[in-house]
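Summary for the funding panel

The consortium committed to producing paired sequence-structure records for every protein in the target list. Below we show the first two records in order, beginning with the earlier of the two.
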Amino acid sequence: MSDQLSSTKIQCPYCWEVIEVIIDDCGEDQQYVEDCQVCCRPINFHLELDDSQQIQVHVFTDDE
């Protein structure tokens, strides 16, 4: 398992801006909230490992 930070681009589910975020590639599923750098609304992040051990990043609004 790796324990490192990496960056990825996501699209804010509120303002639709593409922003770069830092994720912790700790080798396990995670859920957390981080504010959008553009509109400041809370984005729910769900990080999960796929079958090939790659991190998949999913983002949602508060009401999803």
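The next record, for a separate protein in the list, is shown here:
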Amino acid sequence: MEWFDKRTASVLVTVLIFIAIGAFIYGAGRILIVFLLAILFAYLLEPLVSRFTRWSRISRGSREIAIAEVYVILCGALAILLILIGPHIAEEGRRLLEALPGFFQRISSGRIVREIGSKRGWSYNTQIRLQQFLAAHSAAILAWVDSLGVWAAGFARSLIWMALIPILAIFFLKDGRAFVERLVEAVGRYQQKRFLVGITVDLNEMLAHYIRMQLVLAALSLAAYMSVLSLLRVPYSLALGAIAGVLEFIPIVGPLLGAILILGVGFLANYHHLLIVALFLGGWRLLQDYFTSPRLMGGKLELHPLVVIFAVLVGAEIGGIIGVYLSIPAAAALHIVWRRWQRVYATGPKIKAA
């Protein structure tokens, strides 16, 4: 009697392959994330490159020149934007970073309660209770601040890897279509080829639309935060608006972190119109989530809100902030694969009625 038949051997080989793939993903997770972000960046620039290839007098018919032309224009636009508002944001950001240690020290010692409570009319007993609570939890507050500093240092180190994204995106813009065509040609069976072609078409449409609309939503939030916070004279308004606008690019978690940052800094800086700021943030969130986003996205993702929340939580557990950002397109990609599999493989022969 044979210990292993062909079916058992096939199952074991499949399991080993999946284990090897999982180990590779775990070991090379940072590199894979950089490549995924480069692919998404390439999707963002693809419409511009295609238009320049067709219509530009300089790069007409040459995709390589069109890519160079798009990069030069983007770098020029970014340079102009940094010259116009960059120094103001940098100055406010520097002052905010200098003020943060003092804020945390006053919180851990409980001194912030007396400073704010006396100006806002809190009762003496309330001030004493809050001060005692903060003093009792000062170790936990300082530990949280230290962990935040470690996270910030790790994020700063990851920025070096982020610099590779526009460089890698050049190769995806130049040869991405050729890669896909070769992959499709390598598949021999007609049904498998049909399945793969359908997936690539749906993924191209979904990812291109998703990235562009996320950028539009983030740009709208950036403009709204910076202008409204400046009009309301919120301390460090430009820096806070810029950070919150960039965080808007991260689904669900980003807007929440941005709102907490704005309200938290405003409270610590003893800003007197926090209620108005909170009403603005709540109203803007409703406008974005129930009016702007549905009309821009147009139901392209076809994901239930519960699936989105689950995907975001799993992405945060696996990859942190970047995992949160990649979670929704990953969930939408799995939905596309499942839907295409049902169309190609799960649809049995139709039985004609007598």
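Regarding this second record: Residues 349-354 have pLDDT under 50 and may be disordered. The radius of gyration is 26 Å.
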